[in-house]
Design a protein that fits this description.
Length: about 325
């Protein structure tokens, strides 16, 4: 696992100081949760292993006032803005989090880092994000984040007027065809071996999308061109490819802490980022409210969730403080 360079942010200084909140994750969700806590004078330690979901992306989009900004630049400036507050940013990988409490004592959370450091906090915010498993077609990895993407809102405009393919035949891929119909010059549904029923075929035709059911053997890149090599020898040059990755949790803490997971595999949270375990909050791609069928991953969504988790944690800590003073 790679670690952030000094230019990308955190310091290596260890700490044993007790803290109000341990924030695990230094993407938009964790950074915003830390800012919200710092602003209300709650101490926080943020641990960041330096592996970000949008790492392959050179420029992020659909983020108002930051449209087209490199994600690393965004994170660096977020860390600068944490500097005035009681927020310590540490480079490192948390490997274990456990709730601990002695007899008659309130619950504390102890985190162990890969290098043996331990941190103890009153509460914990999980902001460790998701990872993407791509369809297993050779060459797709090299296109991911530039010529291959999952979200037309984030990457569709960059392929304007070009020949765009949608890989797979899942319902969300049909949705992507509908969205890209307004943007692409030409559209092809690469079903990768799946047959298309009559109704879907009619919808695709109405959306102006061609259908290719021949499996894709591999993808390659030629400059700004993505090349689909089909099993029958045909080659299709593309401006971009949309696909549906499978999500998985990037860290084991939901499992370690026993928080409730939704059918999507994400952590269930309430409107204030509270999980089913008191003292444990979650924000960003790894969590969503039950009203949504799946995570709605975006930078702004993660920022908003981070702010709500920070506010929820602050409210609960305040309640505990008030109860303690009677
Ligand atoms: C290819 C691609 C392109 C995208 N483009 C856009 C776009 O243009 N616009 C947009 O709005 N959204 C985009 N997204 C979505 C966006 O990147 C995510 O929604 C957003 O990054 C989620 O933020 P997060 O804080 O939840 O998680 P992440 O940004 O993934 O951050 C997770 C953090 O947790 C840390 N972490 C994980 N495990 C540990 C551990 N064990 N110990 C310590 N730290 C740990 C990581 O190091 C990282 O700091 C894109 C996603 C992908 C995959």
């Amino acid at each position: 696992m790679s670690h952030p360079t000094p230019a990308d942010g955190p310091t290596d200084a260890p700490t044993d100081a007790p803290t109000d909140a341990l924030v695990i994750g230094g993407g938009p969700a964790g950074l915003q949760a830390a800012l919200t806590l710092g602003r209300i004078h709650r101490s926080a330690v943020l641990v960041d292993s330096g592996v970000y979901r949008n790492a392959p992306v050179t420029h992020m989009h659909n983020v108002l006032t930051h449209d087209g900004r490199p994600p690393a630049d965004f994170r660096a400036s977020a860390r600068e803005q944490l500097a005035p507050y009681d927020v310590e940013v540490l480079a490192g990988e948390v490997v274990r989090v456990a709730a601990t409490h002695g007899p008659g004592e309130p619950t504390r959370f102890e985190a162990t880092l890969g290098d043996g450091r331990t941190l103890v906090a009153r509460r914990v915010v999980l902001a460790t994000g998701l990872r993407d498993d791509l369809p297993s077609v050779p060459g797709l990895d090299e296109l991911w984040g530039t010529l291959a993407a999952q979200c037309p809102f984030c990457h569709g405009h960059e392929f304007s007027g070009g020949h765009v393919a949608v890989l797979g035949a899942q319902p969300q891929m049909m949705h992507a065809v509908g969205l890209m119909n307004r943007i692409a010059g030409r559209l092809t549904a690469l079903t990768h071996g799946a047959e298309v029923d009559e109704a879907t075929g009619a919808t695709l035709a109405a959306l102006g999308a061609g259908v290719v059911t021949t499996p894709v053997e591999r993808f390659s890149r030629d400059g700004d061109v993505a090349r689909a090599h089909l099993a029958d020898g045909m080659v299709i040059d593309l401006a971009g490819v949309f696909l549906a990755p499978t999500y998985r949790q990037s860290a084991p803490f939901a499992e370690q802490l026993g928080v409730h997971l939704l059918e999507s595999g994400c952590v269930e949270i309430d409107d204030f980022g509270r999980t089913s375990v008191p003292g444990v909050y979650a924000a960003g791609d790894l969590a969503h409210r039950p009203a949504f069928p799946m995570p709605m991953p975006s930078v702004i969504g993660a920022l908003a969730a981070g702010q709500m988790a920070g506010s929820g944690l602050s409210a609960d800590a305040l309640g505990e403080d008030m109860a303690a003073v009677g």
